[in-house]
Each structure stands twice: as C-alpha cells, then as structure tokens.
Amino acid sequence: MFSVFYTTTLCIILQQALAAGRINYEKKLREQLFLHRQDYEATRRPVEYRNQTLVTHLGLHILHLTEVNPQAGYILIYGWLQLSWNDNSFKWNKDNFGGITNLRIPSNLIWIPDITVYNHASAESAANFGQTLALLNNNGTILWVPPVTIKFKCSFHELQSFPFDEHLCYVKFGSWTFDGFTMDLQLTTNDSNDVLQDYKTDHHEWKLAAVGAIRSEKIYSCCPEPYPDITYHLQLKRESPFYMVTLLLPSIYIMIFILIGFWLPPMAGEKLTLSVFNMISLVILMLHLHFVLEGSFYHIPGIVLFLCLSLIFVVLSLILSMFTCNMTQTQQNSTRSNFLLRLLNGRLGWILCLPQIKECLESDLLTSNEAHDNMEIPEGDCEKNPIDDWITLATAIDRIFFLPYAIVL
C-alpha cells in the first residue's frame, strides 16, 4: 500500500517538474527570439538578401456558404486561410530548449504576407482576416491559419436554365505590394476534397458542387515584374424545391389549361373565362419572376420565354373568340365564301378534326306535293348561313394554334 502511494506521488512530482521545466524553457526561448533581439522588424520581409525571393504557400478551406446574392452580384463565404513561409531568424536548436519544436505567438509580432482578395465586393472584405496565433517551428517554418470571411464578386447573368442554373465564380488571392521576384506565391494544394474537407452544406438554395484552384501570373502595363495570384473556381448549383412549387407547377397547370382552351368551342362562355384566367395567371407569374430575378441577366431565361409565348397564344385566342362572337352577331346576312367552304371541308378540315360545313342549312320544297314525292332540292334555292362558317374558321385557327404550342412544349 505504501509503495503504491509512493509511486503515485513520485509520478505527480516528476510531471509537475517536467511541466515547470518546459515553461521555463519556453520562456527562455521567447526571450531569445523577441526580447533579446533588437534587429528584428515585423514590417521587413524575412530574407537574408535584398534580391532573395520569399516563397509563400497559400491554401483555402471553405466551411460555410454564408450568402449568395445574385441581384447584387456577390458571394459571402466563411472558412480559413492557410499561409506558410520560412523565416530563418526564428530557427533554434530544440536540444537547447528542452526539446521544444514549435512555439505559438501572436501574429502581430512577426512579418505577415499582405495577401488580399483581388475581386472583393467591398472595401471591408479586402483583408478581413482574423487575428490568431501563428505557429513557429524550430526549422524556421511559420504557419498561420486565420479565419476569413470573404465577400467577392460573381456574375449571375447566365440564367437560361433557371431555376436549374449553374454558375462558375472565382475568388482571387494575391499580394497587394510584392511582385513575383520578391514573394513567390505558390498553391498549397488544388485538391477539391482538401478545400471542401470541412464544408457544411447548410445553404437553403445553393450548393457548392465543385472547387478548383490554379496559379497564374500577370504582368501589368505599369511594371515589368510578374504578379502571381491564386484563383479558386467555385461551381454553384441552384437547388431549391421552393421554385418547383411556386414556378414550375403553376406553369404546368397553366400549360394544361391553355391546351384545353384551344379545344373549347369559340362561342362557349367558358372559353372566354378560361382564356382570361390563363392570361391573368401568366401575368402574375411573370411579375413574380421579375421580383425574383430583378433583371439580373444578359440572356432571357427559358421559363420567361415560355411564359411570354404562352401569353401571346392566349391573347390571340381570346381576341379570336371575341372576333367570332362579334361576327356571328353582325354578319348573319353576308354571303358565304366558296373558297372557305372548300378549304375547311378539305384536307385541312380533316387534319384539324373540323365538322363538315353543310352547303345548305334549309331546303325549299318545290311544292308540297313534289316534296312529298321526291324531296329534291334545286340548285340556288337554299338559304345561306355564314354563322357556321365563322365558328368553324375560329375553331380551325384555335386548333392551328394548338399544334405549334404543343410542339414548342
């Protein structure tokens, strides 16, 4: 029993002694790196020679797709940035400091590369990096991983396939003052799995489908030096059942009603009512799309073209029905057109499934006795009624409208 107590007490004492020793070594190391050095400046590039190039590695890890605003043309993401470079002034021998291989220090005590977002959407998002501790290794390598909130511009003008559209956006990082000869910016990794390792798909409308990265250099007209940059390409895909309920399903219902309206008789009051209902519904849907998209596109979306085409067909059908009603009331005594009779009773009428127009609606009997004997109708003695002609013509035009509308759908 005494031996167990003695062993436990000894282990605790040794552990506290080692911890105290490490604290003393860490304090000694901090004093050597910062307090006893008067020549180190946090604003000076950490190189031994003026013409020496400092290699800096950059990597982006996206955690959240915070906001996507197609109308204003920007994206807001949250994640963390990985920056690493080498500073030989922070090398030490770990054997002289109790085996300490790394040290965590405030980032404002050391030189930090002036990385910024080139295509930032506002001045506040130009360098919105969090102030976190930097990790110093005994070989001189410095690792700084600050949290970042990046608000960058993105074009959402290609909306032909709305609401199933996809967009390719990019965020570009680079040094604001250093050229490629003084600071060589390199990509840590371009593996999309590494960039999206901790990504949370929590956005209600947009999905981050893929991410890629590329390093490039650009020479400006003012300066002969190359300026390297790291560009991350983000492929966004719209996924929202909201538009399925509020746009697609009503469009399908209206499409069915329009097709039904083309087969209703032109003189039927239900046809006029249905046409007016379809026209008002289409206008409401187009107004809803106006508030959703707010004109933020170069090319007209397909659903807008569909609604415009449907509105044109509905208005033409409504005008035709009103014209037919007017003609049946005002043209009762007009003569019938032989050309119209041959056209509607011919192959066109058979294709459109039109009823055959009778050439004579009533027959004059020669005499009551002759009518009783043979019921023969002499030519030119039948009454002519053009009302059926106008109704059949309106029906033919309605069904002609039906064919291209159904084909377009």
From TrEMBL:
UniProt keyword list: Cell membrane, Disulfide bond, Glycoprotein, Ion channel, Ion transport, Ligand-gated ion channel, Membrane, Receptor, Signal, Synapse, Transmembrane, Transmembrane helix, Transport
UniProt cross-references to InterPro entries, sorted A to Z: Neur_chan_lig-bd (IPR006202), Neur_chan_lig-bd_sf (IPR036734), Neur_channel (IPR006201), Neuro-gated_channel_TM_sf (IPR036719), Neuro_actylchol_rec (IPR038050), Neurotrans-gated_channel_TM (IPR006029), Nicotinic_acetylcholine_rcpt (IPR002394)
Every Neurotransmitter-gated ion-channel transmembrane domain range: 247-357
Stretches assigned to the Neurotransmitter-gated ion-channel ligand-binding domain: 29-239
Ranges in coiled-coil conformation: none
Membrane-spanning ranges: 242-264, 276-293, 299-323
One Pfam family matching this protein: Neur_chan_LBD
Matches recorded under Gene3D superfamilies: Neurotransmitter-gated ion-channel ligand-binding domain (2.70.170.10), Neurotransmitter-gated ion-channel transmembrane domain (1.20.58.390)
Membrane topology: Multi-pass membrane protein
CDD domains found in the cross-reference section: LGIC_ECD_nAChR, LGIC_TM_cation
An annotated Gene Ontology molecular function: transmembrane signaling receptor activity
Signal peptide: 1-19
The keyword Cell membrane belongs to this UniProt entry's keyword annotation: yes
GO CC terms, sorted: postsynaptic membrane
Domain of life of the organism encoding this protein: Eukaryota
Protein's cellular compartments: Synaptic cell membrane
Family statement drawn from the similarity comment of this UniProt entry: Belongs to the ligand-gated ion channel (TC 1.A.9) family. Acetylcholine receptor (TC 1.A.9.1) subfamily.
Function text: After binding acetylcholine, the AChR responds by an extensive change in conformation that affects all subunits and leads to opening of an ion-conducting channel across the plasma membrane.
Name by which UniProt lists this protein: Neurotransmitter-gated ion-channel ligand-binding domain-containing protein
